[in-house]
Amino acid sequence: MTTTHAGGVEAHLEVYVRAFNSGDPDAVNEHYTDEAVSAWDPEQPLSGQARKDSLAEFLAQKPTLTAKIRESHVTRDTALLTVDWTMEVPGEDGDVERLSGIGTDVLTRGADGNWRYTVDAPYGDPRNTAE
To answer: Where does the source fall among the domains of life (predicted)?
Structure first.
């Protein structure tokens, strides 16, 4: 499976969603820079191994992600995206938890042409939701 894409940010998001939905943490981590920050909890942003461990733990729950770019600003090797996303997370009791938000993401394009997340803030503004 190709886990990164040297096309535009739209293609990057499509490939990222497929990697995320595969449940493979290594495939998802290929979409982040080594120093990337993920802020699922704005009070405790994670980077490095803590970000990777948190992602692996979350992916073990087999969530399903859908995402669509709301706004995109690209200049050379940097992109700022606003993304509407929804996620369904199966619970142990069989119920499905539905999460949604408007994410704010900063991506950089590497020397290989692939876009990668530098800052991943799924709840860019926690007062807003995608619904």
So the answer is: Bacteria
